[in-house]
Amino acid sequence: MQRIAILLFLLAVAGGVWYLIDQESPEPASTLPGDGVDPAGANGQDPAGMRGANRPVSDDALPELLKLTKPARALLIGKHQGTWPAQVLEVFLQIRELEFRSWYTHDIESHLGAEGEHRGMTALGAGPTGDYLQQHDVQVLYLDMFDPNALPQEFWNVVAERVNAGRMGLCARPTYLIGEDGVGVTAHPMLSHPTLKTLLPVARGALVQGSPPLGVYTDARPLRVTALGLKHPATRMVANTKAAAKSWERAGAGTGAFVTKFCYPVEELVAGAQVLVEVEAATSVPAIVVGPASSKARVLWMGTTDFGQPAYYNSASDALMKLLINHWTLWLLGQHGIE
Length: 339
Fold this sequence. Notes:
The chain is an alpha/beta fold.
């Protein structure tokens, strides 16, 4: 009888320990959907609709993280390290079999060109060159904030050749440059560079000046996907159009809603350019634009600084933001599975 009592006591202790382990050891969550993420709210809600990312597509389908079908290489060139380039590089790290390098024309400490985060590919040495693009068969190029005149014309000749042939995708985020007089430059150098400007879907931008400067919003303005953006693979986020609309609704709600306090003031788009995302203002402003559907070139213009600081600090919004970058990166690579 005493043995039975001891046995029951031990079973009770074991059960209690197992209960505590089960309650205190939740499954680890990653930063991206489809890879163990569970950004539920405090009440067990799912504000971004990120759970079950790999389930079959339906009207209620949730966002999917796309994967490469074959290895690829990317290069990011920026003026300096910052929040947005770091966000892009974090997505690069999450895309398996993607090798990448980053280069900044103004290193934070030395103010000289310097390499940033990377995975694979050889070092850039003195800086990006056309030969480097060819030798490494770079398939997507991100340009962030910097003045293209910082690189030799030989580099841009190769960029144009590869982009126009459909062998390399191009993403450009200009923001705006402040001159010595404290106002914006007449036109962003990306729009005035003789070679680069021929590749962009934006033909002309207004002067970023005034008080406040044109393109700068006193209050953060919402970002809204267009009807075309719900269909385009770069911004749809899911294979199902209805589900894509729900994902964008989630991105526009709550404390981490996609907003911006700046969007480069576009005056004219190239013929056939497609506006995928707009800034809601007195007059809608193109925020994310891609080139004509008939073109071999895959080029994406991002006119905003980002999607708002609150989005970085809201786990659900941050996951959606990374998901969006993931989708348009694969579209730029020509490896997007949703058409």
